[in-house]
Amino acid sequence: MPATQRPVGNKVLFMATCLCDAFYDDAARASVEVLEYLGVEVIFPENQTCCGQPAFNSGDWKSSRKVARHTAKVFAGDLPVIVPSGSCAAMHFHGNRLQFEECPDSAIDSLAGRTWEIIDFIVNGLGITSWDGAFKKHTRIAFHRSCHTRGTHTGEAANTLLSSIRHAEVVSFGQDDQCCGFGGTFSVTFPHISGRMGSLKLDHILEQRPDLLVSADMSCLMHLTGLARVQGRGIEHRHVIQVLRDTLVARNK
Where does the Cysteine-rich domain lie (predicted)? Predict the structure, then answer.
């Protein structure tokens, strides 16, 4: 769905996602800090859980529909729902539409139409096309486009903001549109294939000697940096929203 068709305002509902809850709490914190800096009031429903994607990807649509209905109830209303994950956002506006295709649900459809990945929201919802941020020194950034952000505005939005940060250089690398190999439950079901895909992705990324690996999906970062660490090829990594928060000039004065 084109971003311009979704409602935008100065008040939003925020979905932190399971990975923020378990591993990347600072990405959630950075999301709130950046949104509030941009004048957006952030509401966090405390009874939120998962988007349902693990069950959906495993073929257990009965369970994933149950989770989706709970999520739609928690995020009911007409406010935009902001998610710091291309994967979870795509579950709302794409996966749910697939699994409810034969049993339409107005609450699910409403959630799908109001969901934004956070970087897409900042650029295409709020109209922010440059970032008043700066690194302390020249920083080469490798931006990984996750599979779930294909066909959305997230990749272009992220590049727009990252490229506008002073002293930042967004470097290109080979096969940048290829999957990192995580794929949620795919990495559990087919660990060897998943690992080889991730290692190949790392080969292309590290060949460019970036200072920082950045993505709009924490699941991809978790997979790639986990492999890099085990292989002795560790690389510093950040979610895009953390980079925006950490380089903000007003914050660092």
Answer: 12-91, 141-224
CA atoms of 93 and 116, how far apart (whole Å): 9
Q: Rounded distance, CA 124 to CA 119, Å?
A: 8
Task: Return the CATH number of the domain spanning residue range 134-252.
Answer: 3.40.50.11810
With left for phi above 0 and alpha for psi between -120 and 50, is residue 133 left, alpha or beta? beta
| CA 121 from centre of chain | 11
* Residue 230: CA count within 13 A, CB half-sphere: 10
- Domain residue ranges of the chain, discontinuous segments joined by +: 3-125, 134-252
DSSP lists the bridge partners of residue 248 as: 133
Place of tokens 């928060």: 245
The tens place of each residue's pLDDT in the chain, 253 residues long, gives 334 445 566 899 999 998 888 889 999 999 999 999 999 999 999 999 999 999 998 899 999 999 999 999 999 999 999 999 999 999 999 999 999 999 999 999 999 999 999 999 999 999 999 999 999 999 999 999 999 898 899 999 999 999 999 999 999 999 988 999 998 888 888 999 999 999 999 999 999 999 999 999 999 999 999 999 999 998 999 999 999 999 998 777 6
Task: Give the residue among 70, 95, 93, 69 at the shortest CA–CA distance from 81.
Answer: 93
Pairing mode of beta strands 134-144, 81-83: unpaired
Cα torsion angle, 91, 96, 99, 101, sign: negative
Q: Among residues 198, 38, 26, 8, which one has the least CA distance to residue 130?
A: 38
